Amino acid sequence: MSAMTSTTALRLGLLCTAIALALPSQHASAQAMDQSKLQMSMPMDMPMAPAKHKPATKAKAKKPASATSSNHPTLRHRVPKPTLEPVTGRTTMDMPMDHSTMPMDMPMDHAAMDHSSMPSMSMVPKEPITPIPVLTDADRAAAIAPAGGHAAHDNSIQNYTVIDRLETWNAGHGAGMRWEGQSWIGTDLNRAWLRSEGERIGGHTERADLEILYGHSVSTWWDVVAGVRHDFKPGHPQDFAAIGVMGLAPYKFEAKATAYIGKSGQTAARLEGEYETLLTNRLILQPLVEVNLYGKDDQRRGIGSGLSTVEAGLRLRYEVNRQFAPYIGVVHERAFGKTANLRRTGHEDIDDTRLVAGVRIWF
């Protein structure tokens, strides 16, 4: 009995010794676990103090610092409270957020944020800042097109008259004067035209004609014309039937081409082209070319068949206003073929160059 008692006491002593030896190792592992948790919740660049081991009998489990604790020097971060702007409904922060000091692994406690002051869809203003005015009868009337036609005046009667050239020059044996102009009345699609040109030297009319034409628009820039032409000079008066086209050619050349048929079988054609170059808004340079052709000889008028005359001019005008523009220029005229031979026979020059001064008027 005594042997069993001593054996039992020996076993109890060995067990107590083993328990006493095991307790310090468990306490050290608990401390190591606490320090590893603290190191994971701290910034990467924060220095770590070495762990101090204390005796097991006096050691107490130290509570790790919370990630949201304000005692940590680098984790002082306050979630700003959003405020609502009175007009736009947008939120503004009462202090800037410094994300540079926020650790990457810092948890955000969204449950702790105050969402009660955040704007909702019901807080956004539904009415516009500037109210839409009420539609009135005057607004409705302004939206209706006028009954008399649009601004192009295609249904109303209009008129226009222009004297392209009213000029004079020194002809040697007297002062020379020349005119050329046209006028129309009608709509944008249908018009009645008057065209005239002539020349006087030393008080005598050398040539003059008048055309009365009907014009119809066939495209945006072109009209077809047809009518009669009456020649006053040279020689005896003569009438022609006329048909042609006039308008704006490509590159903004103003062009006219008219064919004529006379009573005695005489035929003729006149081609004109001019171009306006704006040197300034008021200073304009205008070159012009005119070509006359005839189908038969007419010695009484000094006209030969084929190409008769070519005239080229260059005029520089200054528009005092859009309706009145004085100009100066130079004009050269030359006769060709049988017309040149008839002029030589009559002791006349076949070519002529002159300096001119004149005025352009329209109304």
Report on the structure:
- This protein has 363 residues and is of the alpha+beta class.
- The protein is 15% helix and 41% strand.
- It has helices at residues 2-41, 137-142, 337-345, and strands at residues 82-84, 91-93, 158-170, 175-186, 190-201, 204-217, 222-233, 238-249, 253-262, 267-274, 277-278, 283-294, 306-318, 324-335, 351-362.
- It is elongated and about 175 Å long.
Q: Would you count the extended β strands for me? A: 15
- Net shape: elongated
Biggest beta-sheet profile: 12 strands, antiparallel, barrel
The number of helices is 3
Would you list the SSEs in sequence order as H and E?
HEEHEEEEEEEEEEEEHE
- The radius of gyration computed from the alpha-carbon positions, rounded to a whole number of angstroms, is 54 Å
Helix/strand/pairing category: alpha+beta
Distance between the termini: 152 Å
Helix content: 10-25%
Q: Widest sheet: strand order?
A: 3-4-5-6-7-8-9-10-12-13-14-15
Task: Report the average pLDDT across residues.
Answer: 78
Unreliable spans? 25-30, 43-51, 53-77, 84-94
Please state roughly what percent of the residues sit in beta strands, choosing from under 5%, 5-15%, 15-25%, 25-35%, 35-45% or over 45%.
35-45%
